[in-house]
Write a sequence for this structure.
């Protein structure tokens, strides 16, 4: 395992031959490198997306300038289409939940469980499990950098 290049070269010894302390050191070094690389890439992606947004705004304005009847424009390199997306959100959740129940419109909610709330419910109500509920628990590791003594 080559801790300097995070796996790019052939290992000098197998992973099983390293001490747990060495494995921890290597793991932390790799995690730091991943974080560093992720930060660099996120910065580059953010800059590209900003340029993309600027170009999209100009293209939208140009298609709109062609008149109300025009919603798409074919070019040599592709077709530009104006699309309308509507997003809904509740400004007053209590009023919205009351409305949903009054009109038997539970399908207005998405089908997912609030994970932290479900865990809290189960912790506060041992032995009471909602019907149809399944769960998956996974064991993972967490590695913290050593602190100065």
């Amino acid at each position: 395992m080559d801790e300097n290049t995070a796996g790019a070269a052939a290992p000098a010894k197998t992973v099983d031959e390293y001490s747990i302390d060495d494995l921890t050191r290597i793991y932390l070094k790799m995690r730091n490198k991943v974080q560093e690389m992720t930060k660099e890439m996120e910065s580059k992606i953010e800059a590209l997306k900003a340029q993309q947004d600027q170009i999209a705004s100009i293209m939208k304005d140009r298609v709109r300038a062609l008149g109300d009847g025009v919603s798409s424009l074919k070019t040599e390199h592709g077709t530009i289409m104006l699309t309308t997306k509507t997003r809904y959100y509740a400004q007053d959740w209590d009023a919205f939940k009351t409305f949903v129940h009054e009109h038997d419109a539970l399908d207005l909610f998405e089908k997912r469980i609030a994970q932290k709330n479900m865990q809290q419910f189960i912790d506060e109500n041992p032995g009471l499990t909602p019907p149809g509920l399944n769960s998956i628990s996974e064991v993972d590791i967490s590695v913290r950098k050593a602190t100065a003594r």
Observations:
- The beta strands are 72-74, 79-81.
- The CA atoms of residues 110 and 119 lie 19 Å apart.
- Residues 15-124 form one domain.
- The chain has a mean pLDDT of 89.
